[in-house]
Model the fold of this input.
Amino acid sequence: MELKKPKSWCKSVSAFANTSGGILIFGIANDNSVIGLPDAEHDAEAVSEIMKNRLSPVPEFHLSFHVAENGKKLLLLHIFKGEETPYYYLRRRIILLPS
Done:
């Protein structure tokens, strides 16, 4: 998955949460080659923030790291089956202010 395209992977996250869960792996190219992430820790923080701002409700998830055989670091996003379905992708975070 491409971290730089949150619309794409957030829709996958909501689909996983609305069904039986799943795992997204960041650091794999479209041709399935392992390219890794130069700063996986920073990317993990970005993924967490994007999910909190673009998904409603925020599904239960877990982030972990994996070092591939070529030494490249991957980020694994584990999405659990949701208990508060349906989960939606929001283009923009809507903030309601008290009147």
Residues 40-54 form the longest helix (15 residues).
